[in-house]
Every structure is written in C-alpha cells, then in structure tokens.
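Sample entry (281 residues):
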Amino acid sequence: MTGSIPDLILEPMVRAALMEDLGSYGDITTRTVIPAGTTYAARINAREDAVVSGMQVAALAFRLVDAGLEVKTVIADGAPCKKGDTLMEITGDAASILTGERVALNFAGRLTGIATLTAQMVAETKGTKARITCTRKTTPGLRIVEKQAVIHGGGFNHRYSLSDAILIKDNHIAAAGGVRQVLEATKAQASHMMKVEIEVDNLDQLKEVLAVGGADVVLLDNMDNATLAQAVAMVDGKIATEASGNVKRETVAGIAATGVDYISSGALTHSYRTVDLGLDF
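Predicted structure, serialized as tokens:
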C-alpha cells in the first residue's frame, strides 16, 4: 500500500480527535480574542530533520474544522525533510486554523516520528534482503495511520488485524497440545487463500515445523543471532523466515545479517519519539 488512504476512512478518527479537543463548547479562547473575519497564513514547519508522515491527516483535520481553508502540502508523506523546512501551508480564517492546530500537529508529529524511526531501522539493513515490518502493537484506534507511517518510512506492514492471516504463537501451541497438532488442524481447516505463520522458540521446534509442513512463514522468536543464522540455514529457503523479539535500532543490523527475510519490531509504533513540528503564523 503506497497511495493515500481514502479520506472517507480516516474522517471518523480525525473527527473524534477534534471533538475530544473542542469539548462541549468549542474553542472559547479563539472565539474570545480573535475578531470575526480575521484571515491569516500559517505554516507547519519542521524543527528537526525527519521523514514526513501525517500530512494527509493534518490536512483533513483543518478541512473538517473549516472546508473554506486553503491547505497546501509542501513536503509529502514519505519524503525527507530538514530542520526549518515548511511541510504545509494553511491560509484562511485565523480562528479555524487555531482551532485545528493541535489535532493536526498531534497526528503529524507522532506519525512523522514513526516514519523517521522506521527509516532509521531500514537504513541499518542496507545490503541485506531483510524487510522491516511493524506489528499489532499500535495505539488503539490509530492502527491504520500508524501502519501507513511505517510504509512512509520505507518499512512494510504485518497483519492489520487478527483476521488477516493465521499466526500461531507459543500460547496457541501450548493450548492445542504441540506444534504438530496446530499445523495439522490448520491444514485441515484453513482456507487455501489464508497464509499461515508459526512461532518457534528453538531449533527443535523449527525442525518439527519443517517435518510436518503447512506453514508459509516461521517466526523465530527471541533467538540470538547465531541461532537465527542456524535457523535460516535449516529452512534453506523452503519457507519465509521472520525474526522477532527485542528488535531495536541498535540490534537490527546484526539480525539482518543472519539472512532472515523479515524483521518485525513493535518498537516502530510503541517506542518512537514524536518529532517536533510547529505551526507558525
């Protein structure tokens, strides 16, 4: 998914954020101090280097406040920016701009933070085949835009929801009675259109997965790099390999060097730092 998400899908999320901020009586500060009919031009500016995300969402926030505002994106989602760059220009009713400011910046700063961290991790994997992917460890209600921010940073998406694919984790294996049992049940019941991934904690489990068959991807969980390299050799291209567990910017290069196909990191969407963006009149 490389294009924009339809505004129609994003609108309920952005509208809810605006309603939360407006409270029961609207922006009383702006109504009190800004004369009716005052117009102004404002800019969202970057106060540090980053990879941009959230411009579509920020623009939607301003337009939901006032459809008459003229909103121009200067640096698009997915593009790099430098400190001092203007990302967006907003022209029109000053009160409307001020009312939408915080919600627009909240989304843009956080999503730019995700895109920036993702880009940094992707850069650490240069020269390897590994793809950086996110997880379902997202902010409740914001998954669609947070996962889009990962794409803006050059990463890839894992499952969007529990219904996207079969991902058999350690607790599934424990509850069902073992690796063979879960894979046999999957082969008997799953749609031919549904991908199957299974998590393993050690090489003995991996050996059983390869013997039983039925998985498209194996999730190599919390293995050290030497064990990951052994696992990749054991798989020998038969199925895709994914490394997960304690994946950070400081560790991702070593993990990628083991030859895994994918590296999933919850940190992309739960341990990023919000990028400093400001709206200046």
